[in-house]
Write a structure and sequence with these properties.
25% of the residues lie in helices and 8% in strands. With 101 residues, the chain is of the alpha+beta class. It is flat, with a radius of gyration of 20 Å.
Length: 101
């Protein structure tokens, strides 16, 4: 590790170090509501994994340098049409006959 030998303090574990770096990068930004993944990839690659637990995911084939205002508006429009449940399940639909579907 790059910090080895620079201090008399014990070396932090990789989990502690990752948490420290994420706190510095994210600051007080809070949890992610919409995560947009460009370039056709359908994975998070451990990027903001915990902060994205209840995020809505939007995948696009467009590469990041080509991602423009129109693409962002499309992603946000799709986001606004989603039902956010934050880990819950949808309420059952009750038919007029009284049974749940």
């Amino acid at each position: 590790m790059a910090v080895r030998g620079l201090s008399d303090q014990p070396e932090p574990s990789s989990d502690v170090l990752r948490r420290m770096v994420m706190q510095k990068l994210a600051g007080d930004a809070g949890d992610v509501d919409l995560l947009i993944r460009t370039g056709g990839e359908k994975r998070l690659s451990d990027f903001l994994l915990w902060e994205s637990a209840y995020a809505e995911l939007h995948f696009t084939e467009r590469m990041w340098p080509d991602f423009d205002e129109e693409d962002l508006e499309a992603a946000i429009g799709e986001f606004h049409h989603r039902e956010r449940r934050f880990g819950g399940v949808p309420a059952p639909v009750v038919s007029i006959a009284g049974g749940a579907r």
